[in-house]
Structure formats: structure tokens, C-alpha cells
Design brief:
The protein has helices at 148-155, 170-173, 178-186, and strands at residues 3-4, 14-15, 24-25, 40-41, 62-64, 71-74, 78-80, 86-94, 99-105, 115-118, 123-126, 129-137, 140-145, 194-198, 204-205, 210-217, 222-229, 232-240, 245-248, 251-258, 262-267. It has 270 residues and is mainly beta. 46% of the residues are buried.
């Protein structure tokens, strides 16, 4: 259970993750191509309407500073943490000068999960391990483990960097090990290059277990980009627009173009 160890001072939140369909393709971590993936994944129960993203985010883009060993919990998605628990970035509030996030229990959505609103610098406990909220962005929350056991578990190098699909990829999907992050980074286009996700065109798969899908609302000029890894929805970016930032596998992208055919993302981090 997610239990606060210092109290949040802001209680106003707007949800982010849009209503999930009962079935969502299995997603993983990867390169620059788009290919069909026959492995399906069940996202579980559909979140309530209150988890829908606001049409515009007032900013700032980020508050706080991310550490090198931080856990990146992506907007709309979850992250499996040591000790058998997990946490989701379920909602966000930004008023132009400050930013807070709503975190919920568990690695994927289930009804009745506990939530709390957090700010940078706040501490929380998940499955017996203490974490400090180091940074809150529109697209991620960064948690820094505060005890040696959790740090060791998160940074431990897996026996293999080869993705096998489904739950077997948990060691790749929920890791801060340098070898894993390097393999994930190498699977994407180089900085300045474009990653294209075909609109409703199947699943784009990547080397360390991540998969991506995209759909475009041509009328609203917005898109939905979903990411799955180890059969867990690790990100669900709703209502993204040209110019927005998204992240996959510790790699940042800017949404540069939305068309009837595709979502185009330009890599902005090294």
C-alpha cells in the first residue's frame, strides 16, 4: 500500500489517464520501426472518467530535478517496485507556476486503489521502501529510492538483455540498471531523428520489452500514445498535441507531427 510519510500541501488534481479499453495490445521498449505484434495484453478494469486528461496543461513542464538513479513513472502508466508493490502516475495539476501529481497504488489500474497528491521533495513508502519525489513533469514523476535494498534491486543488471515477451520482461521493463537503459536508448532513433507510429497501424516493438501504439483524432489534432511492457501499461499519453513531450525507456521525444496516417516523434535526449 502506498503510504505517505510527509503530508502533501495541495489536494487539487486533474486526472490524466484516459478511459482504458478492456483489451490493449501488449507493448514493450524499442527501435524505430513499426511492426505487427500478435502478443496481446489485458489492461484490466477501465479507469473512471475522472482519469481523463485536461485539454491543455498550464505548465510548468517540470518542477524539481531528476537524479540519475531515479525511477521514472510515466503519465497514465505504472511501475513495478521492489517488494511486490507498484505505483502509477494517475493524475496531474499545474497552475502555471507549480505542479503536483496524483499517485495511486499498484502497477496497473484496479478499482478501489488508494491515491495521494504529492509535491517535489515529499517522501512516501511503497511496499516497505521509502522514496522521495524528486521531479514532477507533465509526462513523468521521478522517485528516488532512499534505502540500499531498493536501490540494489532496481539497479541490478539482468542475466540477459533479450526480451522474451510478457511477464518475463519485468527485469527489463522495471529497472534502472545502466545496461538496460543503454540497450533501450540504442533501440530508438538517434537524437534529432524521427520515430513514426502508424495511426491505428498495429504495434511498434522495441528490444527491451516495450511496445507502442498510437491513434490520432484528426478533428481535434490530438493523439493517444500507449506503451506496454511486461504486460503492464507503463504509459498512456492522452490528448497529446504537436509540441508536447513524451518519454519511453528514459528517452525523451517531442511530438512533431500528427497526420491521418501517423504520429511522428522527434528524439530530443541523448
Amino acid at each position: 500500500m502506498l503510504r505517505p510519510t510527509s503530508r502533501a500541501t495541495r489536494a487539487s488534481t486533474h486526472g490524466v489517464a484516459g478511459a482504458l479499453t478492456a483489451l490493449f495490445p501488449l507493448l514493450a521498449l524499442t527501435g524505430c520501426g513499426s511492426s505487427s505484434d500478435e502478443n496481446g495484453g489485458d489492461d484490466g478494469p477501465t479507469p473512471p472518467a475522472t482519469a481523463q486528461a485536461a485539454p491543455k496543461d498550464k505548465g510548468p513542464l517540470c518542477v524539481g530535478k531528476a537524479g540519475a538513479d531515479g525511477v521514472h513513472v510515466l503519465r497514465g502508466g505504472g511501475f513495478r517496485l521492489p517488494g511486490g508493490g507498484g505505483v502509477q502516475y494517475a493524475g496531474a495539476t499545474a497552475d502555471g507556476t507549480s505542479r503536483t501529481a496524483t499517485l495511486s497504488d499498484g502497477e496497473k489500474y484496479e478499482e478501489g486503489q488508494k491515491e495521494q497528491t504529492v509535491e517535489p521533495g515529499q517522501k512516501l513508502t511503497v511496499s516497505g521502501h521509502v522514496y522521495t519525489v524528486r521531479q514532477i513533469c507533465s509526462y513523468r514523476v521521478v522517485l528516488e529510492p532512499q534505502d540500499a535494498q531498493a536501490k540494489a534491486a532496481l539497479t541490478a543488471a539482468p542475466a540477459s538483455l533479450e526480451a522474451k515477451g510478457g511477464e518475463a520482461d519485468a527485469g527489463l521493463c522495471f529497472s534502472t540498471a545502466p545496461s538496460v537503459l543503454a540497450a533501450a536508448s540504442e533501440g530508438f532513433p538517434a537524437k534529432g531523428d524521427t520515430l513514426q507510429l502508424v495511426n491505428n497501424g498495429g504495434v511498434s516493438t522495441f528490444p527491451t520489452g516495450l511496445s507502442l501504439t498510437a491513434s490520432v483524432d484528426a478533428t481535434a489534432q490530438t493523439a493517444r500514445i500507449g506503451a506496454n511492457c511486461a504486460a503492464i501499461p507503463v504509459a498512456i499519453y492522452e490528448d497529446v498535441r504537436a509540441g508536447d513531450t513524451v518519454e519511453f525507456g528514459h528517452v525523451l521525444f517531442k511530438v512533431t507531427e500528427l497526420t491521418d496516417d501517423a504520429v511522428r516523434l522527434t528524439r530530443t535526449s541523448g
